[in-house]
Design goal:
The chain has 9 helices and 10 strands. By secondary structure, it is of the alpha/beta class. β5 and β6 (about 90-100) form a beta hairpin.
């Protein structure tokens, strides 16, 4: 059942969604939505029933203590609303959860039910895949849609992908059948350093979302985290001559492929983003680009992943690193 009590009338609402799991290399996409929720102080107004969509032996609930009382958090998908201020205020409906274990069509239909009740005009799904991209270059972000008219109007690629898909592709297809305009933004994460977090990829997704929706997103500590991440990976790569040589090969291939982009629209987009920020002042398992199994050249310490260290400090830690099945063609990400 859809419960929308307490949700105000929304202004030009856009739904922005991301799901942990196969479509979330380096946790880049889910972290991007979490960043939006945190920076704009979103409040959860609805959650899907976990028992309808999740296998608890795959995504286990967690136990925590609150005021001396033992409680359980169930894996699910939650929705919140944030209002973006400025000259043209608008609302974002944020969807953050875990790729469901079962009943994907019902899952998508339930999300589309929320979108319909809230008057959502556009659905943007964020994803991240593992690819042959060097960590030393800007993160490639592709914007794709299955709607030819939307592709022309918003300067997006019309998807031609065929192959295995995740919940991102299924949700976008469900939107198309329901007549809801939908776009997916995909960041390419270096497959040789796939463990989360990847703040550089998260920042790239948010920058692309800014351009798509013509709004300004507070970046918080992401730029500093992205710089520290790259310095840390540089240090780790320098310790292995084979990895360093491989990174150099990727750099040469990337630079050669992007020579035509060195002028024109790419520079114009970056300059416009710079002007926008200067004028505004300070603000208040995974899919991959090739078939087969993903891997990591920079290995984790036993017992958990290691975040690349900041200069002169030790790195943080988190859950186990991984690279899921590769589901994208080199010509572009899935829809």
């Amino acid at each position: 059942m859809i419960e929308l009590e307490g949700v105000p009338e929304l202004i030009d609402p856009v739904m922005v969604a991301a799901f942990e799991g196969w479509n979330d290399a380096g946790d880049a996409a889910s972290t991007a939505v979490a960043h939006l929720e945190r920076e704009w102080k979103g409040e959860v107004f609805a959650a899907l029933d976990a028992e309808d969509y999740y296998d608890f032996q795959v995504n286990r609930p967690t136990v925590f203590m609150e005021d001396g009382v033992r409680k359980i958090t169930w894996p699910t998908t939650r929705l919140s609303v944030v209002r973006v201020g400025g000259d043209k205020p608008r609302d974002l409906v944020l969807v953050r959860g875990i790729e469901p274990s079962m009943r994907w069509r019902s899952f998508c239909n339930e999300l589309l039910g929320f979108a319909h009740e809230l008057g959502v005009e556009l659905v943007v799904v964020l994803g991240a895949l593992l690819g042959d991209t060097p960590h030393t270059r800007p993160v490639p972000v592709s914007g794709v849609t299955s709607d030819a008219d939307l592709a022309r109007r918003m300067d997006l690629e019309e998807t031609k992908y065929e192959g295995p898909t995740g919940i991102v592709g299924v949700l976008q297809e469900a939107c198309a059948h329901a007549g809801v305009p939908a776009v997916s933004l995909w960041a390419a994460v270096p497959h040789y350093v796939s463990q989360p977090p990847n703040p550089k990829a998260t920042l790239a997704l948010l920058n692309r979302l800014e351009d798509l929706l013509d709004l300004r997103i507070p970046q918080g500590e992401l730029p500093e985290d992205a710089r520290a991440w790259q310095v840390g990976v540089d240090q780790l790569a320098a310790e292995d001559s084979e990895v360093a040589e491989y990174v150099q090969t990727l750099e040469e291939a990337r630079d050669t492929a992007e020579l035509p982009e060195a002028s024109g629209e790419a520079i114009a987009r970056e300059f416009e983003r710079y002007l926008r920020r200067r004028d505004a002042g300070p603000p208040g398992g995974h899919a991959t680009a090739e078939g087969g199994e993903g891997g990591s050249y920079l290995r984790d310490n036993p017992g958990g992943r290691q975040r690349p260290p900041k200069p002169d400090t030790s790195g943080g830690s988190g859950g186990a690193a991984g690279s899921g099945p590769k589901g994208e063609d080199e010509d572009g990400p899935e829809d």
